[in-house]
Design brief:
By secondary structure, the chain is of the alpha+beta class. It contains 9 helices and 15 strands. It is globular, with a radius of gyration of 22 Å. Bound molecules: zinc ion. Zinc ion (ZN) binds next to loops.
Length: 313
């Protein structure tokens, strides 16, 4: 199994039993020590600099920006029991948001997340994922009426009394897999690249699961569709929250039973087998692997480790 992945460890305690306790939530919202994670249109508030850090607000700072505290999302408690909320400032115009940010800046977590301590990156990702969901579920998917926030931001209920549908935050499962096999007598892993990626970058294959499909079936189907390779022995290795915008990455290892590659040009620009030696020599050949904080890289590093190789940068 993989070690804990980046973007985990968001909060010490989600305290989910408190979500429906309106008096307790109101009390926490009024506490000067409570911390707010501000977002503006899917961007997290960051203090820029050589080592970027999240900017947290207290309730006075939230009120200064928005007048009142609108639809805060209770995230949980940190290690010392401080309550944490996400707050959406998307209603502000761009210049208003910039003014509210002061010396800080709204930045894309996808760009700067890897530079943060893992727990803080996890907290910001959790807040981003929750507010992304809220902004896209303001209306009921069943009847089209407006929805209303309940349970401190963990539920939206349709305002049409006849419908009254409950909508819960969504996470879309995606599979990501390192396929290995014996190619020309040598152990190798299968990686592909998309045309929009930086030159020389290859990564593990990945794709979304479909309704009526097991994770193991999704792994086998995606590998077959993208590369024509047939796999067996699909084994779970670990997972990574990936709220960019709303996924959970489920990591697998799979064993190839065929090795001929037929690239699906709609999905990939190229796919190839790489030996451990190919990966060790990548500085010379211009091959790039996915970033360190990705589960793709963790799967690759785990395989390199099994071969006694060191992973380097
Ligand atoms: Zn409805």
């Amino acid at each position: 199994m993989l070690p804990p992945t980046f973007f985990t460890g968001a909060v010490a305690d989600r305290a989910s039993h408190r979500r429906g306790d309106a008096a307790w939530i109101a009390d926490r919202l009024g506490d000067a020590g409570t911390r707010f994670v501000p977002l503006w249109r899917d961007r997290n508030l960051m203090r820029p600099g050589e080592s970027p850090a999240p900017a947290f607000w207290n309730v006075a700072e939230v009120r200064r920006a928005t007048g009142e505290v609108v639809d805060p999302v209770f995230l949980g408690l940190d290690g010392d029991g401080t309550a944490l909320f996400a707050i959406d400032l998307s209603g502000l115009a761009e210049d208003e948001a910039a003014a509210a940010a002061g010396a800080a800046e709204f930045q894309d977590l996808w760009q700067v997340g890897a530079l943060l301590p893992p727990g803080e990156a996890g907290l910001l990702a959790y807040a981003r994922g929750m507010l992304y969901w809220h902004r896209r579920h303001r209306f009921c998917g069943s009847c089209g009426y407006a929805t209303e926030v309940r349970d401190a931001g963990h539920l939206r209920v349709c305002s049409n009394r006849v419908c009254a549908e409950h909508h819960f935050p969504r996470t879309d499962p995606a599979v990501i897999m390192l396929v290995t096999g014996t190619v020309d007598g040598e152990e190798a892993c299968l990686m592909g690249r998309q045309a929009r990626w930086p030159k020389g970058m290859y990564s593990t294959l990945a794709g979304f699961t479909e309704p009526g499909e097991s994770l193991e079936e999704a792994v086998a189907r995606e590998v077959r569709e993208e590369t024509g390779v047939e796999v067996t022995d699909v084994a779970y290795r670990g997972s990574q929250p990936w709220p960019f915008p709303s996924s959970l990455m489920l990591g697998f290892h799979a064993r190839a039973v065929t090795t001929d590659i037929t690239v699906d040009a709609e999905e990939l620009e190229d796919a190839r087998w790489f030996t451990r030696d190919d990966l060790a020599r990548r500085r010379e050949t211009g091959l790039f692997l996915p970033r360190r904080h990705s589960i793709a890289r963790a799967l690759i590093d785990a395989w390199l480790g099994e071969g006694g190789g060191e992973t380097g940068r």
